Amino acid sequence: MALFEKLQERQQANEPIRVALIGAGKFGSMFLAQAPTTPGLHVAVIADLDPPRVQSSLKRIGWPAEAHGASTIAQAFSERRTLVTDDVEVVFTTAAIDVVIECTGHVIAGVDHALRAFDAGKHVVMVTVEADAVVGPLLAKQAAQAGVVYSLANGDQPALICELVDLLRTVGFTVTCAGKGTKYLPAYHESTPDTVWGHYGFTGQQVASGDYNAQMFNSFLDGTKSAIEMAAVANATGLIPQSDGLRFPPSSVDELAQVCRPQAHGGVLGRSGTVEVVSSLYRDGAAVPRDLRWGVYVTFESDNDYVQRCFSEYGVVTDDSGRYAALYRPTHFIGLELGLSVAHAALRNEATGTAAQFNADVAAVAKRDLAAGELLDGEGGYTVYGQLVPAAVSLETGFLPLGLAAGVRLRRPVAAKRPVKWSDIDPPQSSRALELRRRMEREFDQGSL
Fold this sequence. Notes:
Layout: H1 3-12, E1 17-22, H2 26-34, E2 41-47, H3 51-61, H4 73-79, E3 83-85, H5 89-93, E4 99-102, H6 107-119, E5 123-126, H7 129-146, E6 150-152, H8 157-170, E7 174-182, H9 196-200, H10 204-207, H11 214-221, H12 224-237, H13 256-259, E8 274-279, E9 296-301, H14 305-313, E10 317-318, E11 324-329, H15 339-348, E12 360-366, E13 375-377, E14 384-390, H16 391-397, E15 406-409, H17 432-445
Parallel strand pairs: 1-2, 1-4, 2-3, 4-5, 5-6, 7-8
Antiparallel strand pairs: 7-9, 9-11, 10-11, 12-14, 13-15
Helix pairs in contact: 6-7, 7-12, 7-17, 8-12
């Protein structure tokens, strides 16, 4: 039975999927905009540190005041309304919540919320992909032990890439490369929250609308988010990062199969079975025609002459040899399609992508010369950006994970464009995320992960 039919059944039986959303920023607001039109779905709780901001956001996206006016969780259930609260405890202590959407964007909080949800027997859709990049394989392991689903978030690009990879592998193709598009120039690695809006060309009026967070948007620009998302894809699909991480080659959708193939066959890849992000800009800043800035793709191959002839007959985009082909989706809907992950978890007990191994990591790299005593400010900030590296290399070299690089102090200087190592920082404050990361590193070294 189709998911939509299953949702309709739940609607008719007055047994909706009961959802708790933690963190109602841009992604969460986009999900909430669609939730009222999704049958069989009830957002029972929105937990956020700033309830007045949430109320303002709900008004902006079109929710009537009576829809979110519940004063208790019992009222939210009985009247099919939503409780907006700054008390996250209600999410974990309310047995009737089926699915928790972790949408804070904060690694330490995200890991803690996921673990608490598992303990309470609740499925987790992890929008905070930063947490997945740090400890996703162990979160998936913990969820399985608890008998619940841990899932990447549909609408976010990693889950959509995983879907394409699974499709192609299921019908017998060999995946060459998987990834997404973005706006990239090498100079963007040095971007800070002070310079980000100029690079995007956003007006002051747009920024003042309430949906724009400078540090978050800067993470997309400086290459950090690309590294994080490709780490999530690699760990969920078994693909292996290239030895030098991401190269961000310019490519149009028509050139994907030509560009994203191994160097031995005329492409840019250091290996087959990897991840890569393509740029919508040439290195001189000129726009790539028919770019994939908002989309996702997979390149794949077949050495079967008949299959290659079928590619040609049915308009499949291939390289000049006909051996490598590309499948792409030009856009993604962010939180607008997040409900698919919720439905998969609650109705089919399935994830829309989940970390299965530790293949990739994201190292914190200095944006400029950093002095001893400086405080690192993490993703999208002024001090470091994220670089994708093979997990084995990261652990062997002792790189500091980008997701744990906020609020830690340097004990020695680090030169610009050099990775920060664990040995370069003072011992970080204890957290469940740090404990889980250290455990994951040990299990990887022991060959048990």
